[in-house]
Amino acid sequence: MKPDSPQWPHGLPHVLLIGAGVVGRAIADAHAARNLPFCLADQSEEAIRAAARAFDEAGYATRDGSLAGGSPLPESLHAITVGDPSSTDATTAPIVIESIVERCEVKQEMFAALQAGLGETAVLCSNTSTLLIDEIAGRRLRSPGRVCGMHFFMPVHARAAVEVVAGKRSDDDAIQAVVDHAARLGKRAIRCQDGPGFIVNRMLSPYLNQALLLLCRGASERQIERAALAYGMPMSPLELIDWIGAPTMYHAGKAFTSAFPQRIDPSPMVPALLKRKRLGRDSGGGLFDYDRGRRSQQLSDPTQQLIETYRTDRRAFSDGDVLLLLTIPMWIEATCLLKEGVADSMSTVDLAMAGGLGFTSDANWSEFFAELGTERIDDAISRWQSEFKSMRKPDDAQVA
Ligand code: NAD
């Protein structure tokens, strides 16, 4: 399939970003920072206006609408073009990165409309965190092979990699185009197979959930932060929850729980944050309060109240216990990912941890566990597995 098909409309940048919400905007910023022209579209006119104002203020060339005359985009979308489309390298494959609401049927409809409007050359990437690429490609698309995953991590500017996810039917050239596009954004590609949560969210979900469980069982937020930093994570898991935002946390948690119910006790904190509209740092506050992007030292008052509501224990955990309880669930997931073939090797898992989660230790992530040693890991598992589902032995856990 020729990338520069006549179906691709003249004057349209080769990059179309659909969805200008939390992560869509961050992806747009990443393109602007690399001077890659793009068209950003959203059903919300306000979201596009806000993006246009921000790009104007930052000195980027913007213009309204995706195209003069005969837009191939669905009519329901508002759009701006940022950068000069004529500077687009005509040899690069046209690529769409979708970051709209996390609902499979809405994404399927969007991809059907885009493939009808843009022709079948365009590579259609979903930035879904929790849905399967094979399900998004569905049964209605004429060319399901053009669909793959391009999964970014928050904060996008600070993460060195993206997951490039191959569905069962994804074309090799489409996957290669996404890997090349990641390189143009200055990011490494974590290649993986389709599966619930791919690699990074699959490992992250039990870790973040565990942080919330520990908070309600007696560990302090300081202890959790200390353990995370000692482990090699760039920030507290509680702060990361606010970066991700309660809605995505909720969807990701539900996806993990329904795929692997035997390995998680979901914390009630995330649905409670949603109910209280404590949606995260982009919405004014989540577990912490934020003042012009600066996190409060302590958890917010509503969070403290929620901890008391859902408290199940007042245990005095040692820092060492908190470290083991936070980290071993990730090691268990990595073991399962390798057995299932979602990740092809431990070095891919190491790349996912460093490039996707910002694991900052001098050593690779897997070396942390090599140093910990099988005996200590097994001891911790035996000690805690009856209390935490996430601490059950990989051999006992059903591998999908
Ligand atoms: P968000 O709610 O902040 O933004 C979604 C945007 O999509 C909104 O601007 C909304 O107006 C628009 N939209 C919704 N339905 C649409 C439609 N039918 N057509 C056009 N526009 C539509 O959500 P978000 O947190 O930015 O997440 C978006 C996607 O990215 C989800 O699939 C999510 O799983 C994924 N993701 C999120 C994160 C994260 O940390 N928040 C990270 C990686 C991937």
TrEMBL record:
One Pfam family named in its UniProt record: 3HCDH_N
Domain 3-hydroxyacyl-CoA dehydrogenase NAD binding: 15-194
Keyword Oxidoreductase annotated: yes
InterPro entries documented for this protein: 3-OHacyl-CoA_DH_CS, 3-OHacyl-CoA_DH_NAD-bd, 3HC_DH_C, 6-PGluconate_DH-like_C_sf, NAD(P)-bd_dom_sf
PANTHER family: 3-HYDROXYACYL-COA DEHYDROGENASE FAMILY PROTEIN, 3-HYDROXYBUTYRYL-COA DEHYDROGENASE
GO process terms (BP): fatty acid beta-oxidation
Top-level taxonomic group: Bacteria
SUPFAM superfamilies: 6-phosphogluconate dehydrogenase C-terminal domain-like, NAD(P)-binding Rossmann-fold domains
Keywords: Oxidoreductase
Stated name of the protein: Fatty acid oxidation complex subunit alpha
Sequence ranges assigned to domain 3-hydroxyacyl-CoA dehydrogenase C-terminal in this UniProt record: 197-290
Molecular-function GO term, any one: 3-hydroxybutyryl-CoA dehydrogenase activity
